[in-house]
Design goal:
The complex is a heterodimer of chains A (about 375) and B (about 70). With about 375 residues, chain A is an all-alpha fold. Chain A has helices at about 1-10, 10-30, 40-50, 65-80, 90-110, 115-120, 125-145, 160-180, 205-220, 225-235, 240-260, 275-295, 295-305, 310-325, 340-360, and strands at about 85-90, 155, 185-190, 190. Chain B has helices spanning about 15-25, 40-50; strands spanning about 5, 30-35, 55-60, 65-70.
Chain lengths: ~375, ~70
């Protein structure tokens, strides 16, 4: 067991981890997930929010099994390797707000950092603006961290506290099994489904579940984090996590080409828009929120599975952010930025800066 | 007695930041840092090696935390 543990967090191991995640993501696209969206923490959480009726944007309603499966995969891995530890108490409500802000920013760009790289790997050059925004947002976050920014230490919590997120994941996955999609129907039992748009594109259930569990396991072992990749390079000149992110990008690029899924350009890219400034600024806000919360959305999902209730609160914030984004017309669409997307982006960046400034303490 | 930094409950990158700060200060050639999650353990070790330091000792504390003693190599 220990040799697996050491291997996936070694340099070679994490490069392999990034590569496997890249292959899985592209295969999910090939087998039915939306284009350049094999796996996306922002889009998929948003789709689950729609499937459970917290927003009613008709084109993005599907209970994506990848997200709960990822949580369960990471949970099982943390239990097997003795790393499940219930902990909480590090500024939970600020983490909720950061989760919501991260999601609002990501839905202006149309993707989490994982998808930003998947979009680039599929030839969507608009992603370059998003990635640049991510780097700038994380850089601003590191300025706060260097100056003593901290959300405080966690404390040990009861087992029940740490089990909440894995149980929510189990509940969501059970819903998807109990109420499968019905041909031509926009509702199955208590779940909403999309009849068109990205919500209507999905890989077979078994593929999605297996992919999610495997990615959860790999991420828990390897500590894969897209925000950490940028942060560690900027703060410590360390390329450990970055090597995983780059292998993820390269392998996804190669796989897209092999499967004929690569289409380079700015216009007409799937589930994307060409408003470059807002692609950039949306991810500045999102990147800042991830840096201040200490992990990209994938990493937050994994931490929430390991018993970190603060990461769990961040994830719940993401759900709230997704609902707010669609209910209040912050979210972008292929037609462009949402009616209130510009104002929302400015607010998200401002909120990040305020949280950064007000949590600088002597450590 | 070597200096000891308590990084219990702190999430990354803070334990790494505390360790590298201590290394960069250059006042001591050996110190300890106590972390309570496997990720911080790995990250502190990686950062120490990156800065040319070594892990001299790892000790499991009663509360499940790990005390890592780092020394200049």
């Amino acid at each position: 067991m220990n040799s697996i543990k050491n291997f996936l967090s070694s340099r070679l191991g994490i490069i392999l981890a990034g590569s496997i995640i890249g292959i899985i993501a592209v295969l999910l696209q090939y087998y039915g997930n939306p284009a350049n969206m094999g796996i996306c923490m922002a889009c998929f959480v948003r789709d689950i929010t729609g499937a459970t009726g917290f927003h009613r944007a008709a084109v993005v309603q599907y209970l994506r099994p990848e997200i709960p499966a990822l949580i369960l995969g990471a949970f099982l891995s943390s239990v097997v390797f003795g790393e499940f530890k219930s902990r909480s108490g590090s500024s939970p409500i600020l983490r909720f707000v950061l989760g919501a802000c991260a999601m609002i920013g990501a839905l202006v760009f149309l993707g989490c950092p994982w998808r930003a790289f998947l979009r680039l790997a599929g030839g969507d050059l608009n992603a370059l603006y998003g990635i640049a925004g991510l780097v700038v947002g994380v850089f601003v976050g590191t300025l706060f961290i260097r100056n003593g920014y901290s959300l405080g230490a966690t404390q040990k919590a009861s087992k029940a506290s740490g089990l909440v997120m894995p149980l929510i994941a189990l509940f969501l996955l059970a819903l998807r099994f109990i109420y499968p999609p019905i041909e031509g129907a926009d509702k199955s039992g208590l779940l909403f489904y999309s009849l068109k748009g990205p919500g209507a594109s999905f890989a077979p259930l078994a593929y999605s579940v297996c992919a999610g569990i495997l990615i959860g396991f790999i991420c828990q072992r390897s500590r894969f984090c897209t925000m950490g990749a940028v942060r560690d390079l900027l703060m410590f000149r360390q390329v450990h996590l970055l090597s995983a992110l780059l292998s993820f990008l390269v392998v996804a690029f190669v796989a897209n080409n092999l499967l004929g899924l690569f289409h380079m350009g700015f216009d007409g890219q799937p589930v994307a828009h060409t408003a470059s400034l807002w692609n950039f600024l949306g991810m500045v806000g999102s990147g800042l929120a991830f840096a201040l919360a200490g992990g990209c959305p994938g990493r937050q999902l994994v931490l929430s599975a390991e018993g970190d209730s603060d990461a769990g609160v961040f994830v719940l914030g993401m759900f709230a952010g997704a609902a707010i984004s669609h209910n209040m017309m912050f979210a972008s669409s292929p037609a462009g930025v949402g009616a209130y997307g510009v104002a929302a982006t400015v607010c998200v960046i401002a909120i990040g800066l305020v949280i950064g400034l007000t949590n600088i303490r002597k450590i | 007695m070597t200096d000891e930094i308590n990084a219990r409950g702190l999430s990354c990158p803070q334990p790494v930041l505390l360790a590298t700060k201590k290394i960069k200060e250059g006042k001591v050639s050996e110190f300890s840092i106590v972390v309570d999650c496997g990720v911080s353990d790995e990250n502190v070790e990686r950062a120490a090696k990156h800065n040319g330091w070594n892990v001299k000792d790892k000790e499991l504390k009663d509360d499940g935390a790990v005390k890592i003693t780092l020394a200049k190599s």
